[in-house]
Amino acid sequence: MSRHIVCLTFDHDHLSGFIARGLTTPTVISRGEYDVVVIPRLVSLLDRYNIKATFFTPGHTIDSTPHAVTPYVEAGHELAHHGWTHRLPASLSREEEEEEIVRGNESIKRISGRTARGYRSPAWDLSPHSIELLQKHGIQYDSSLMGHDYDCYFARQGDVAELMTPFVRGRETTLVEMPISWSLDDFPHFEYMRLPNGSVMPGLMNATNVLENFVDDYTYMTRVQPDFGILTYTFHPHVIGRGHRMMMLERLIQKLMEGGAEFMTMEAAMHEWLARRQQADKIAAE
């Protein structure tokens, strides 16, 4: 029996992403605060279709606005790790990165009763230390890399990437990588931003056109991996929460359901993938 799993994920950055970029003026802060309006609508939409999603939430968000996080925790959605300050791990020392993981997990445990099983790097940029530190602190899966589209794999530790020598792959770890793509992220499609360096991220794409892309990626998965596949979409509450985009999100859910998609949290999808891999290894060993 074929199974095509879809994970709807939400990076609930609130103010943390703006503050990490040095953007702290009142208007920018209010853009982040808009997610407080959106969260109850998202929880209601997911409940309407009996979908459990994964929210990657920085500790800064949890500790700043616990009332915005509680609705999806109480609704049974997965609360996963997204740093504490939304600083890029690649910009931190090993000690600073570990502090982010520990502090973020403390925030997650306070509000949900358990530490995170999954992690997503702010801006999807891991450091050379990330895999080791995530495993050290009990993280079972990561969702920051882009080495596949419809399948998980085990993340590597210790790659050597130098300009004048052939690339050397590091050792495979037991950390499950659940890959993502900028093309399946709402932020670059929709979010208009003027950055401190003077550059502009245009965003503001037509939601119907983006919907077509999102649906086609799922359809293609069913063609190239007819037996089993996992596809992850990434949304940000303050981005997807605008009216026409919420309507697009609901149409996406409807179309994927019509195509036979099974919706589940990232943690649940990880366990499905591991069980399937273990079964395949068992058959191969017989």
Automatic annotation (TrEMBL):
Coiled-coil ranges (or none): none
Signal peptide: none
One annotated GO molecular function: hydrolase activity, acting on carbon-nitrogen (but not peptide) bonds
Entry's Gene Ontology BP terms: carbohydrate metabolic process
Top-rank taxon, per record: Bacteria
Domain NodB homology: 26-264
InterPro entries in the record: Glyco_hydro/deAcase_b/a-brl, NODB_dom, PgdA-like
PANTHER family, sorted: POLYSACCHARIDE DEACETYLASE FAMILY PROTEIN (AFU_ORTHOLOGUE AFUA_6G05030)
The family this protein is said to belong to: Belongs to the polysaccharide deacetylase family.
Role played: Is involved in generating a small heat-stable compound (Nod), an acylated oligomer of N-acetylglucosamine, that stimulates mitosis in various plant protoplasts.
Protein name as it appears in the record: Chitooligosaccharide deacetylase
Organism: Reyranella soli
